[in-house]
Automatic annotation (TrEMBL):
The lineage of its organism: Eukaryota, Metazoa, Chordata, Craniata, Vertebrata. Keywords: ATP-binding, Kinase, Nucleotide-binding, Serine/threonine-protein kinase, Transferase. One of its GO terms (molecular function) is cyclin-dependent protein serine/threonine kinase activity. It comes from the Eukaryota. The keyword RNA-binding does not apply. GO terms for cellular component: cytosol; nucleus. Gene3D superfamilies: Phosphorylase Kinase, domain 1 (3.30.200.20), Transferase(Phosphotransferase) domain 1 (1.10.510.10). Belongs to the protein kinase superfamily. CMGC Ser/Thr protein kinase family. CDC2/CDKX subfamily. It comes from Eleutherodactylus coqui (Puerto Rican coqui). This is Protein kinase domain-containing protein. Residues 74-353 form the Protein kinase domain. SUPFAM superfamilies: Protein kinase-like (PK-like).
Length: 401
């Protein structure tokens, strides 16, 4: 969660137009971020502070004096983690009459956010929803909808690669979210499994917009120190700062392969040089013929580039070749030359998704793909082979894993 440079824009003072659609939404849980300077970094936890209990039966909330933008409207239950700029909390909303589907109060959870103004206008089923902003002299707190887990933890729970059908659903939602923010001229700039939240139903939501930036027109230059190393494209590793939506497409392609294979596409490296070597071992070492302008990038050095030939993706990641359309889509997303990468909008029309219901393309932005009748995640192989753990009480979320 470390960030470089200025964290908050100076003009961020007016929150009067922050969307507060909570009154019209069905019951759901929340998360918050409280921004402040702290020292340590801890992994995020998805433990349940309610421990299966219905707190709504034992707590009496005041019904007066509650309003959006007011810290007293929320109660922190558990600190989930700390980063360089934010403290992560899980808590509950104190608004009267607002309860989750199992009767317990709404929950709060925190993520880091560098440009909160970007999320204020984003309303999409595959983007984490900003509910409230609370400003005090010491802190700036953001209240988001609560989502059960993230893609990284989901893959840990289901090692060896996910069911191809489920990968299609996750990938469709990821591309759907990217197409939406790219249409809004916003770059996420930090795509990785930890930043893709997964709900009980299998809804995927882009989260942690801490490195996100608005892509102005005409284009402007940005920092090359973006995106976690394993998901950073070769042009950025070579020092490019004039990237566009192709930056996010590379990260999405890496995540696509990781979901199918069960391990990161380009992992186990400690610096940009090793990362490039991993990429060239598959894509082949770029030349001016295959990638016009590559030799002009700041970090390009001919003396340490080992000449390598291109390998078929299906021979490197064998599960791509066993899933219809997977290898072709991965090839279109993981192009060395950024201008050749497929857009998120075009990728949604790829033959990989031809077996999904056509109604998915007719949904409004705010509707989940799981509102299409008959569409749901299928049990992963591990869930079929290993009995579920016993739970203290049945859940009403119909969790698919």
């Amino acid at each position: 969660m470390e960030r470089k440079g200025k964290f908050w824009p100076k003009e961020l003072t007016d929150f009067s137009d922050v969307p507060c659609p909570v009154r019209s939404l069905p019951p759901q849980w929340y998360h918050t971020v409280q921004v402040r300077r702290i020292r340590s970094l801890r992994a995020r936890s998805n433990s349940d502070p309610l421990q299966g209990k219905n707190l709504g039966q034992g707590l009496q909330w005041p019904k007066k004096g509650l309003s959006f933008g007011n810290a007293s409207s929320y109660l922190n239950l558990e600190k989930l983690g700390e980063g360089s700029y934010a403290t992560v909390y899980k808590g509950i909303s104190r608004f009267p009459g607002m309860r989750s589907v199992n009767g317990s109060p709404y929950t709060i959870y925190a993520v880091s956010l560098a440009e909160p103004s970007l999320l204020k206008g984003l309303k999409h089923a595959n983007i984490v929803l900003l509910h409230d902003i609370i400003q005090t002299r010491e802190t700036l707190t953001f209240v988001f909808e609560y989502v059960h887990t993230d893609l990284s933890q989901y893959m840990v729970q289901h090692p060896g690669g996910l069911l191809p059908y489920n990968v299609r659903l996750f990938m469709f939602q990821l591309l759907r979210g990217l197409a939406y923010i790219h249409h809004q001229h916003i770059l996420h700039r930090d795509l990785k499994p930890q930043n893709l939240l997964i709900s009980y139903l299998g809804e995927l939501k882009l989260a942690d917009f801490g490195l996100a930036r608005a892509k102005s027109i005409p284009s402007q230059t940005y920092s090359s120190e973006v995106v976690t190393l394993w998901y950073r494209p070769p042009d950025v590793l070579l020092g490019a700062t004039d990237y566009s939506t192709d930056l996010d497409i590379w990260g999405a392609g890496c995540i696509f392969i990781e979901m199918l294979q069960g391990y990161p596409a380009f992992s186990g490296v400690s610096d940009a040089f090793e990362q490039l070597e991993k990429i060239w071992s598959v894509l082949g070492t770029p030349t001016e013929e295959s990638w016009p302008g590559v030799s002009q990038l700041p970090n390009y050095k001919t003396d340490w580039l080992t000449l390598r030939g291109k390998q078929p993706f299906g021979s490197v990641w064998e599960r791509l070749s066993r899933t219809m359309g997977a290898e072709d889509l991965a090839c279109k997303m993981l192009k060395g030359c950024p201008r050749e990468r497929i857009s998120a909008e075009d990728a949604l029309l790829h033959k990989l998704f031809s077996t999904l219901p056509c109604q998915l393309y007719q949904l409004s932005d705010v509707r989940s793909i799981f509102t299409v009748p008959g569409l749901s995640l299928k049990p992963e192989i591990r869930d079929l082979l290993i009995p579920h753990r016993k739970v203290s009480q049945p859940t009403v979320h119909h969790k698919p894993w």
